[in-house]
Design goal:
The protein contains 2 helices and 9 strands; from the N terminus they run αββββαβββββ. It has 137 residues and is an alpha+beta fold.
């Protein structure tokens, strides 16, 4: 079950992705992609880690996870176009050390990483993992 803080994290990271210049259409998690099937687009997925509670001082909670963005292109066009889009997304997120949300600042904890493309059937999919952390009081 997603907590309010985790919902805020998803909203803030998704909004930041949407501000990217020349952003491709985005199929957000659990939203019908409609006409995006088998066309060039981005697909998002939130992979939360378990929240950790600390009782030092007033106490706080640490929220960690991965915001995954997958670059989806039609199969057979080569790797240059998707790799260029991956580079743009990596640069967009690595330049932003922190992203604001109502519960605090989301910190991108390391350079976003991509392991390369995968066969998605009719598509060629390249996932990008963006690791984050938020300390909430």
């Amino acid at each position: 079950m997603t907590t309010t803080v985790e919902s805020e994290i998803i909203e803030a990271l998704s909004a930041h992705l949407s501000t990217m210049a020349d952003v491709w259409p985005i199929a957000f998690e659990n939203v019908d992609p409609g006409s995006l099937t088998n066309t060039r687009h981005l697909r998002t997925q939130h992979i939360p880690g378990p929240p950790r509670s600390y009782t030092l001082g007033r106490g706080f909670a640490q929220f960690i996870g991965i915001f995954q963005i997958t670059v989806v292109v039609e199969k057979g066009i080569g790797a240059i176009l998707p790799n260029t889009e991956v580079s743009k997304i990596v640069q967009h997120f690595e330049r932003m050390g922190t992203i604001s949300c109502p519960s605090g600042l989301i910190t991108i904890t390391e350079r976003p990483a991509s392991a390369g493309g995968l066969d998605g059937g009719a598509t060629y999919d390249t996932p990008i993992s963006i690791r984050y952390e938020l300390i909430a009081n």
